Predict the 3D structure of the following.
Amino acid sequence: MTWSVMFFINSCLLGVGLAMDAFSVSLANGLNEPKMRIPKMSGIAGVYAGFQFLMPMLGWIAVHTVLEYFTGFQKFIPWIALLLLLYIGGKMLIEGIKNEADEENEVKKLSIGTLIMQGVATSIDALSVGFTIAEYNALMAVVASVLIGAVTFAICMGGLAIGKKFGTKLSNKAAVLGGVILIAIGLEIWIKGVFF
């Protein structure tokens, strides 16, 4: 593979495709915390972008080193994403229903642990991108991964902003809606990974 305009276009398009799960989770986080400030939004989008950068690189390294181990692990990727997102989404859903019943308007803040779990869950399928960029040399793989991360960052900032806007209007329903979105994403990743 050589450097070309198509290389950059393909990397950006790959980033768009991979960022859709992170966009949905960003939307849910924005819904859940409508008063989130720009530095926190940047941090959240940065975590997702970091994982979207890291996973294709790990996949590329796996292809070039321990392919036989990675191939065995690949069948567990949809299950891991499903379990993580069911846990996070279920917890958010239960808390949203409890808060609705108690009529509390206090918004639950996103913890670092939950953010890391969301980052892993929404990017773990990007490990397999290492196979698609396996023909790239190391520098091209890094550049492609950086572009994927940059696209993810921009898309997630948009998701957070949209979620914040509607979160203000839906305040007490936001956690419930966010939990449902996360569970739906987990099921979608699992169905695509297991049946297609």
Summary: Residues 138-170 form the longest helix (33 residues). The helical segments are 5-32, 38-64, 67-74, 77-102, 112-123, 129-132, 138-170, 174-195.
